[in-house]
Amino acid sequence: IFDKEAKDLEREVCFIDIASDEIPERYYKESEDPKYFKSLKTGRGQLKEGWRETHQPIMCSYKLVTVKFEVWGLQTRVEQFVHKVVRDILLIGHRQAFAWVDEWYDMTMDEVREFERATQEATNKKIGIFPPAISISNISMPSSTRSAPSSAPSTPLSTDAPEFLTVPKDRPRKKSAPETLTLPDPAK
């Protein structure tokens, strides 16, 4: 389905089964488990092993995820980690969409848009409004500023942290450690 978007990329197709695939234990809720949920409005539910062959209708959702983390020594691990997290998010989100069908099934498009607006407003109140934090640009650096072999990805050399890593000034920082730490004098 994504032939034009990813024709030159190496791809792995990953099928997600909302009923049978394992999810992280901390996200599990029996009320959102498709094996136990049955919709009152649609009659859909209690998806058992092999449900894709026996249930109608079936909805497919296609996602194309591309991750590039071009830092030598970390690239494979970080890219695999990001793909796993995205897969978990999609699995959990689609399980919830199925289990919450009775809440959204009869909604009109206007009601959906109002629900989206109210959810966004509530989220902004809770965490604040942040401008987009990451910008991606392709800047070629002269070879004299590089410290790695020419086969390594180029990373601009700078002692300043990128702006997207700074803590917003209008948001208080969480403190996870004391301001100062006093260690005992080893001479005593």
TrEMBL record:
Transmembrane segments: none annotated. It comes from the Eukaryota. GO terms for cellular component: cytoplasm. Residues 9-121 form the Phosphatidylinositol transfer protein N-terminal domain. Residues 140-188 are annotated as: Disordered. GO terms for molecular function: phosphatidylinositol binding; phosphatidylinositol transfer activity. InterPro entries: PI_transfer, PI_transfer_N, START-like_dom_sf. Residues 140-162 have a biased composition (Low complexity). PANTHER family: CYTOPLASMIC PHOSPHATIDYLINOSITOL TRANSFER PROTEIN 1, PHOSPHATIDYLINOSITOL TRANSFER PROTEIN. This is PITC1 protein. It comes from Pelecanoides urinatrix. The lineage of its organism: Eukaryota, Metazoa, Chordata, Craniata, Vertebrata. The gene is Pitpnc1.
